[in-house]
Amino acid sequence: MEYTAETVAPREVEFTIHLGAEEVDDARRKAAQAISRRVRIPGFRPGKAPYALVERTVGKEYLTEEAAEILAPDLFRRVMEEGGYEAYDRPTLRVSQQEPFELKIRVPLRPTVELPDYHAIRVEPEPEAQVTPEQVQKVLDGLREDHGTWVPVERPVQMGDQVIVDIKATSDGEPLFEEKETEFEVSEKLMPAGLAEGITGMSVGETRQVAVAYPADFAVEGLAGKSVDLMITLRGAKERRLPELDDEFARTVGDFASMEDLRSRIQQNIRIELEAQAEARIAQRVLEAVIEQSRLEYPNQAVEREIDFLVHQRERRLQQQGFTLEVYLSLVHKSLAQLRDELRPEAEETLRRELVLSEVARAENIGVSPEEVGEAIGAIAASYGERADEMRRLLMREEVLGSIVADLRSRKALARLVEIVAGRTQSKAEGTDVTAPEQGAEEEPATGEQQPE
Amino acid sequence: MHRFEVLRRPILTEKTNIQGDAENRYTFEVDRRANKLQIKEAVEKAFSVRVTAVNVMNVPGKERRLGRIRGRTPGWKKAIVTLAPGERIQFFEGV
Question: Quick one: CA dihedral B87, B89, B94, B95, positive or negative?
């Protein structure tokens, strides 16, 4: 056997293999036997047809292809071992030449990840979260709005009031519609323009004529683009009354002793929220910095797989809304290929993150213990309430379990990375010239058992 | 009858395959009107071989039914031709 290996794409190798005629002939005979077992040749029991007759029935080319299939696994193993390659996915083979026999085997290789010296990377810490009085006030205002009441008033209508009116609409003397006791809020946003202004200042019982013009793109056909006279009679008006921000209000909102109590709780909640956001931002920046400086090589198949996953995810989401992917695609006038193309950057991004994180997990000796997996499953199952047990069973299935473990591992790796890069580990906090040998000294003692992937 | 009309097709089955290999006997479907001498001549001319014996037999047709309709497949004449030792017919070769 003679062969050459050629890198045809990033992390993708194509082997060109030449074989002696005898080896090929041997394989062809084996192939013929296999074929005759499959293809019925009249006059012969399956597997009993002679070689020449099989060749005449299926053609020599087909026979050679079959022979290649028989030869390939062994050849493939040999060339992979000799070259020290690791396959990422199944190889594809092609008989590029019948006589003399030449076989091409193309295979994507495992991605390679070369991490930078991430102990030396530093990112600016996020500024400390500051809760401003305005932010607290905004939440309080929202609460007031939620607890506001409508109270009837006798004064002329103002903006922001709620009114009950009878409306009779005519256009050029033609009656259009009539509504009794219809209720709405008087605001600048009210359609059509001019109506709100026309109503303000009216007193209960008063009738006014307001001329309005509906915009040309108004949603109701027959009204769009028309000038309409509205005879409006005010039946009643209500005013929005917001509760005072006092201790009593604090007690109605929830379990708070006083206004002060409520304020400090709001402030605390906002702070927690802001801190979580800051933490997420810094994790993102740390990861980006590390990815930026990593050298990643991966085959296209890896990206395609990630895209498959995204498409699948989207399909499931659509199905929950009662769509199918096909219907959705025809609605947005896209082909599946277009959708996949659009998802490509996202897929590549995810892939790069995963590759870097799993490499970090490896370098930092991060494992996931069975207890942690159990906890994660418990947490997910618990969120399903009554169906928790059913969910737990589903999550215990091997393929799901694998992805949970991988996810936990990534998360731990990211947390670790943030600790290191954001300079939070005590031992390395100040050192910027951390060298490789010291990395080994920093193994976590409590990593637990390494889960098989 | 012309000798090109005599031989209709070779019979390729496991059985004829074994007979060909072991006893140098080859089997054909032949025209029903052909006799042994005509078959001998036809095989000798067509494949440039010497024939030492010809055995013939009439294969009866089979009854076929499709629902209530009965029919018969046509019968045919089979000839088993023995060649002189060392002679081969290329067409069957390796089969």
Answer: negative
- Give the whole-angstrom CA distance, residue A101 versus residue A24: 7
Of A42, A48, A53, the CB nearest to B95: A53
Question: Touching check for B95 and chain A: CB below 8 Å?
Answer: yes
pLDDT score, position B55: 96
The listed CATH number (3.30.565.10, 3.90.650.10, 3.40.50.1000, 3.10.50.40) that belongs to domain A150-241: 3.10.50.40
Find out whether A345 and A398 touch, Cβ atoms under 8 Å. Answer: no
Give pLDDT, residue A371: 85
CATH code at A2-110? 3.30.70.1050
What are the residue ranges of CATH 3.30.70.1050 in chain A? 2-110
Residue A50 preceded by cis peptide, ω within 30: no
Per CB-CB distance under 8 Å, the chain B contacts of A63 are none
Half-sphere exposure of A323 (CA within 13 A, CB side): 14
Residues of chain A with CATH 3.10.50.40: 150-241
For chain A, which residues lie within 8 Å of any Cβ of chain B, measuring from their own Cβ? 42-45, 48, 50-53, 56
pTM over 0.80: no
CB contact under 8 A, A44 and B14: yes
Nearest to A118 by CA among A279, A276, A288: A288
Contact state of A50 with B11 under an 8 Å Cβ cutoff: no
Q: Is the pLDDT of residue A267 over 60?
A: yes
CB neighbour list of residue B58: distance below 8 Å, 6 or more residues apart: B32, B75, B76, B77, B78
Task: Confirm or reject contact between B90 and chain A (CB < 8 A).
Answer: no
C-alpha count within 13 angstroms, C-beta hemisphere, residue A415: 7
B94 falls in which pLDDT band (50, 70, 90)? low
Number of residues assigned to chain B: 95
CB within 8 Å: B13 and A44: yes
How many residues would you count in chain A?
A: 453
pLDDT at site B34:
93
Candidates A28, A40, A53, A55: best to mutate against B (most CBs of B within 10 A) is A53
Cβ contact, residue pair B13, A43, below 8 Å: yes
Residue A223 has pLDDT above 50, yes or no: yes
Q: Is B11 on the interface with A (CB under 8 A)?
A: yes
**What domains lie within chain B, and their CATH numbers?**
3-85 (3.30.70.330)
CB A340 within 8 A of CB A307: yes
**Chain B nearest CA to A1, separation (Å):** 28
User: B81 has which bridge partners?
Assistant: B26, B54
Over range A199-213, report the average pLDDT: 79
pLDDT in tens, A120-173: 878 777 777 788 888 888 888 888 878 778 888 777 887 778 888 888 877 777
Q: How far is B57 from chain A (nearest CA, A)?
A: 19
Q: List, in sequence order, every residue forming a beta bridge with A247; answer none if it has no partner.
A: none
User: What pLDDT, on a 0 to 100 scale, did the predictor assign at position A425?
Assistant: 60
